[in-house]
Design a protein that fits this description.
heterodimer, A: about 260 residues, alpha/beta, Rossmann fold, 4-stranded antiparallel beta sheet, 9 helices, globular, B: about 350 residues, mainly alpha, ABC transporter involved in vitamin B12 uptake, BtuC, about 75% helix
Amino acid sequence: MSVEVRNVSFSYGGADVLRDVSFRAGPGDLMAVLGPNGAGKSTLFGCLLGYLRPHAGQVCLGGRDVQTLSGAAIAREIAYIPQSAPVTYNYTVLDTVLMGVTHQIGIFSAPKQEHTDKAMAALESLGIAHLAGRGVMKISGGERQLTLLARALVQDAGVLLMDEPTSSLDYGNSFRVMRRIQRLGEQGYTVIFSTHEPNQAFRYANRVLALSDGGVLADGRPNDVLTGALLSKLYGVGVAVRGVQVKQAEYRMSIPWDEEEQP
Amino acid sequence: MEKTVEQSTPRYGRRFALLGLLFAAAFLLSFALGRYSVPPGTTLRILWMKALEGLHFGAFQPLPRQTWTDTEAAVVLNIRLPRILCAILVGAALSAAGASYQGMFRNPMVSPDLMGASTGAGFGAALAILLGAGYWGITLTAFCFGLAAVALAYLVSRFSRLNATLALVLAGVMISSLFSACTSFVKLVADTQDQLPAITYWLMGSLSSVKAEDMAFAAIPILLGLTTLVLLRWRVNLLTVSEAEARSLGLRSGRLRLAVILAATLVTSASVSVSGMIGWVGLVIPHFCRMLFGYDYRRLIPASILMGGTFLLLVDDLARVVTSSEIPLGILTSFVGAPVFLWLILQGGADRER
């Protein structure tokens, strides 16, 4: 259920992509991974999923080194939800979700009724059971993202790893998807998601990992560590962080600016 | 909730039953066609006798009394049966291989010869004809070159640093064009009196010269490959998602891909080596199957086998019946396939329903 990254370094052809990255995340953690393009987010995800081997340090899933685990064993620990990508074939939502049981069945077998029931339960828990028979090409981007989330739930892994879960979603769908993800964190999943939007870290995460040039710049509660200065350093633009009062709760927001702007 | 899902799920069982009936009807009809007419009842009795004999039941129970002439038996068993079985097997093989490739390459426009199985086999046949090989020599050389072409493309892709699927496509296309250039060269140097027409006719694809021994030769690799595809059919679905995704689901997609390539190549090369080049079946039939049976390979593979077998059987019947000098099957499938495909494009493909 827990992810432990110990002093991981990784380089492509001599250039360091990750330098001495360490953190630990466990149940209830809802971690946003922030960082500019090329900061090493994808490489970090590759190491977490076990398909990139760190040049130094190790990644442990549930206490075991991911490099020593089989593909099926990794799939039992960590589920990956890719960025929304165009689909070639119009599989039904249910068929898509059923792909999550791959590591639980033999090579010549197919999902059985119990797996279908489980898939339906996952869809129900995300509020999209009515879409089960629809084709994934004929539903909205938000619904498709929820479908992939349901597939991850069926996988029975404690850790959910998401690559920009709202990258191509509109404002309303982004919010709906992120709220679902937030609830999964409350239910005890370990959730790690990458995002380009600091406001998502403030709004939904209870933890943030800021990556810059392959190193960890900050790790902590968003309200504590995401200051204007840190975000400025991270993205190379001016950033102001302000509190906004909504329904008796205070939310932080970041607003970018630059020197040339006239008031 | 359960109910809405069931209501929106088409009745696949009934569709399979209808397709099965169509297949059975086409099977029986094919025996009745031809210049020498054999009554359907007699055909059935001859087949029944042969089946009993084949299963060695004859030793334990008396065979049915012979109510047919020896000529009728010879026509049914030695001429029509091998050709009918061959049409079914080749059609089933090409469409199942096409369906699998379309999933694996995440592209519905792919046909089973993408990786060079057909062009390789075509070159093998042309070379064998040029070297004056006999019938068996041609079939065997074609089969081996089909396998070799795909093996070559696969090996090139393994050593490439490109993404696995892209490398396979590129290597396949290159190997294919290399082999078709080789075939053209063979045609250029072939004797224009008898070799060139033989090569050209072979490449057009036909089942008119199929013998019982051909059947036996092609049946083994085809049944082997089809069995593999049927057993792996649910897993083939997983090849349609990106490699990173498949991997995160716990799948070693490299091994599965190799198994599917192996099975598809086995059936394609074996088909081409007995029937010549027959286009369209592997491309069009899987599309129809998707329209009727959805995208899940659990249904798509069996449906492709059944529908492909029925389709090629009927087209071959057409080839036999329409003119006295037979039209090559490869030409007919394109005549039938191309308009059907155009119609499909106009319909918006298989996604219209859901």
